[in-house]
């Protein structure tokens, strides 16, 4: 049930969410070790002066951090919504595909061997590991005659993730030098990323978002039930494959860019479904906007709660998301 102050029009709600996201992004550009006024931030964006130190900070560091938060938040939220629709499981999240486990395993196992030294190298390794693991989970989960059984995908994801986490821990015991790399991914952060990393990430994220938008109408039919979808002429197997590719592109790129950021893909779809019509043509843009907004807020709070120290954004999303998810769980239990 919506609160009275929430607009009933989904278009109006999307517009409001867009404005709030932009405002949060502008505020985030002012926050750092040295505060910068909104006026100076605006000048840095519209009329940058290469000799102005504040403008350089905004252009080279803070702007990239805001863009990373928007891309990662939107990707994880949409991927989470797609996973919950794909498995018909409201507790599903992108991690169900083994994305996090595969990314960390690739970084810890391969980075010391090839001597990866830049963050771009780590990103590529993490994306390859996440993508390969997601493909493996899909292949195992959908293999056999019971292709329509979503539980197979859940079990395959849980089993392969646990296996890779165990291998990762064993690799860290053998090679202590990889500990810094794994802590880097476990914390989850938007700091230290530049526009080079954004340029590497934007193409697969945009492809995943556009692909999921193109499948929105078909997704509306799929969640009504497999029998109904087949009766209406949907190729359910191909649809699930395309949705899985979108999830892997979105979540794999997000994890490679920001590390392990939990609860965004789990909680945001629940919030959006309470505000928007049950139509993926509205839900998907809602997921993207509210996911971006949540990660921007989490990153902003992480920088101002304990100055001059920063709380990793992965910890902040857990602090924000876990209480809300507990509330949802208790509420659903009361109505059961």
TrEMBL record:
GO molecular function terms listed in the Swiss-Prot or TrEMBL record: transmembrane transporter activity
Localization: Cell membrane
Name of the molecule in the record: ABC transporter permease
Transmembrane portions of the chain: 63-83, 95-116, 122-141, 153-174, 241-268, 280-305, 311-329
Family: Belongs to the binding-protein-dependent transport system permease family. FecCD subfamily.
Cross-referenced Pfam families: FecCD
Domain of life of the source: Bacteria
A biological process term (GO) from this entry: siderophore-iron import into cell
Assigned GO CC terms: plasma membrane
Keyword annotations: Cell membrane, Membrane, Transmembrane, Transmembrane helix, Transport
Topology in membrane: Multi-pass membrane protein
Alphabetized InterPro entries for the sequence: ABC_BtuC-like (IPR037294), ABC_transptr_permease_BtuC (IPR000522)
């Amino acid at each position: 049930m919506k609160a009275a102050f929430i607009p009933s029009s989904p278009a109006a709600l999307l517009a409001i969410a867009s404005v709030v996201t932009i405002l949060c992004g502008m505020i985030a550009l002012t926050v750092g070790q040295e505060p910068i006024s909104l006026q100076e931030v605006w000048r840095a964006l519209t009329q940058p002066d290469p000799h102005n130190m504040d403008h350089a900070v905004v252009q080279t560091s803070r702007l990239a951090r805001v863009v990373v938060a928007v891309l990662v938040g939107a990707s994880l939220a949409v991927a989470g919504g797609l996973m919950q629709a794909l498995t018909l499981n409201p507790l599903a999240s992108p991690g169900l595909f083994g994305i996090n486990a595969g990314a960390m395993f690739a970084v810890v196992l391969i980075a010391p061997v090839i001597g990866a030294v830049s963050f771009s190298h780590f990103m590529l390794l993490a994306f390859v590991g996440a993508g390969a693991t997601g493909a493996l989970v899909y292949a195992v989960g959908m293999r056999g005659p019971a292709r329509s059984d979503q539980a197979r995908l859940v079990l395959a994801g849980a089993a392969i993730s646990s296996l890779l986490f165990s291998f990762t821990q064993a690799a860290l015991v053998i090679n202590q030098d990889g500990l810094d790399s794994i802590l880097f991914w476990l914390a989850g952060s938007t700091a230290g990323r530049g526009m080079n990393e954004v340029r590497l990430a934007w193409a697969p994220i945009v492809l995943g978002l556009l692909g999921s938008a193109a499948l929105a109408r078909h997704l509306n039919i799929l969640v009504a039930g497999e029998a109904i979808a087949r009766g209406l002429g949907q190729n359910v197997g191909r649809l699930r494959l395309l949705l899985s590719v979108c999830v892997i592109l979105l979540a794999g790129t997000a994890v490679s860019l920001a590390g392990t950021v939990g609860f965004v893909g789990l909680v945001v779809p629940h919030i959006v479904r309470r505000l928007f019509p049950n139509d993926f043509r509205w839900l998907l843009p809602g997921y993207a906007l509210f996911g971006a907004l949540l990660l921007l807020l989490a990153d902003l709070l992480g920088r101002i709660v304990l100055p001059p120290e920063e709380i990793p954004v992965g910890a902040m999303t857990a602090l924000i998301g876990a209480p809300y998810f507990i509330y949802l769980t208790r509420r659903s239990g009361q109505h059961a």
